[in-house]
Please model this.
Amino acid sequence: MNFLKKRLFAFAGAFICSVCTGFSVSSALELDLTCKVIVVGDAGTGKTSIIKKATQGEFLLEERPTIGVDIASLTIKTSSEKNVKLQIWDTAGQERFRSISTSYIRGSAATLFVFDCNNLDSAANLQQYWFEHVRQHLDEDCIFVIVANKFDLLQNYDVLTPVFERLEGSLRDIKPGAKIKCFEVSACFGLNIDALFEDIAEALVNSPPVYSFGVLAPRAPEKTQSKCSC
Model:
């Protein structure tokens, strides 16, 4: 019993230490911009796997379906030395949860439309449902990213170019003048996962969203005391 108590106390102490250490590191980091990023697409396209690979460096062969929404965060230092925190909202792709997902879309600075490049029905569903579903709730300056996941399993690479072109054209018809990017990624092997979110962070710093919901303005410069004696 004494041995068990010692083990429990040791575990509790290690947990508290790790939490405190993480808090101190996080609180010491000054953020220049915090933005909300929404991830949408059909169930099974790997949205959760992409987010976990980016934020935790993990990949699970069997990922449970998202119910409602999960939120993760990722802080990126851009080439201009700006610290950008991305609050990444992972939404449910199952049809019965789509109405729930709508309420989470508003205020997004960037939207990732994810499809499985080995299942072109999931790409067609971006056109037939997700583009219009999201368009109604986003501002004009939102960044749109079309993401083809599971690139490592693709047998015919030539099929992706016309798919990207078709999806981009369809999205521009709905949102003329929209900022659209396309990425091929593999959550399993981490291919282009870092590049995907780094590119979003760079774009947000270069052209910060004008609305305030879900976005914190860049920190104000420190006030300096006036040397004037008047």
